[in-house]
Specification:
115 residues; alpha+beta; three-stranded antiparallel β-sheet; 30% helix; 35% strand; globular
Length: 115
């Protein structure tokens, strides 16, 4: 099976839910969150975790994980701003299937806290 490496910046609350899954799944989206957006580069995930999650919740984390490439092929890579800001837009109703397509564990690769 071929996989694609993705990253997801998260705050402490989302990380706690990921940990409850045994580091195997992302939590369902909240009603005000119709899209799940994993990103295509670690640098972009770091920027979000450090510049958005830390001010918002006091800490930010970057998770890294592998997704079955055949599953991910049904979604286009979207550009949010500049060329370095690429992500997948996974509809909230697809989260169970997305989580089932994760290969291996979700890993924490970076963490940031407020000074």
């Amino acid at each position: 099976m071929s996989t694609i490496t993705l990253w997801r910046p998260v705050g402490p609350k989302e990380l706690a839910l990921i940990e409850l899954s045994g580091m195997t799944a992302f939590p369902p989206r909240l009603p005000e969150q119709p899209i799940f957006y994993p990103v295509t580069t670690r640098a972009y995930a770091i920027k979000i975790a450090r510049d958005w999650n830390v001010p918002e919740s006091g800490a930010g984390f970057v998770t890294q994980f592998e997704v079955d490439a055949a599953y991910l092929a049904r979604y286009a890579v979207e550009t949010a701003g500049g060329r370095e800001h690429q992500e997948y837009w996974i509809p909230a109703e697809d989260m169970n299937a997305f989580n089932a397509a994760i290969v291996g564990l979700i890993r924490i690769v970076d963490s940031f806290t407020a000074p």
